[in-house]
Known about the structure:
Helices cover 12% and strands 32% of the residues. It is built from four helices and 15 strands. The strands form two sheets. The chain has a seven-stranded antiparallel β-sheet with strand order 10-9-13-14-15-12-11, covered by helices on one side. Strands 1-2-3-7-6-4 form a six-stranded antiparallel barrel. Strand 2 and strand 3 form a beta hairpin. The protein is globular, with a radius of gyration of 19 Å.
Amino acid sequence: SLLPKQLSGRSVLPRAASLETLRNTSATISDLVVEIIVIEQDNSALRRTPIILRGEAVWISGKDNGEDPVLVTNAHWLLQASAILLRPGKDRPTGALPKVQRRSLKDAALGSDAKSILADPALVPLEVLHADKHRNLAVLGGEKLAAPKIGLKLFDIDRQAATAIYGFSHKMGSTLVQARFLTPKDKSSELLFYLHTTYPVILGAPLLSEDGRVISLTAMRHPKQAERTLAIPPRALRKFLDKVQAPPASDGPAGE
């Protein structure tokens, strides 16, 4: 269950968020949600077609103070990447949902899309630092990537009811959009891990509380129910962050 202690005495019932609160939260989190571009080289056909995917990653910290954040997105769309790039906020377009684009080898050779993207000096090259295929989460990093001092914090689902859920994406106007978690209609074993939500943006868009704490990240469209998006469970996100942000194991006192 997403909120097993929602009705316990420790829970705090949420109040309705005002438009001013949502605007302020959107402004606060805007720079901590970034556009990621992934380029795959499809070698499965005679015509090799570069595949361009656009999604998002989020600077998140599992620490209570939000320090030492890591850049988190889904793992599944990075597995076949030949290039992973971050588009800085000042160069970020708006107004379109993340999508997959296919171009012919001729187009790539002529310099359209994939080749021009790779040549864009504004884009920051990234690599996968940590990946957890079971939780479908990954941490990205890069030599030219500057991490913020403070990232988005996690929402504590065990102490507070998360009945008000908002999705955030720069492809949706850089504003919080109210969403809902849905009860699954099927029992497909391969999908049991995921939550179902109404928020339409896939590939790493955060689902948040009204004050900007991260509850979940979207992953992919439901394969049989297009109106549903699959999202990472909050506890899976928490455990992943606990693992990647854990201090390095000590080798013991000097001289041992």
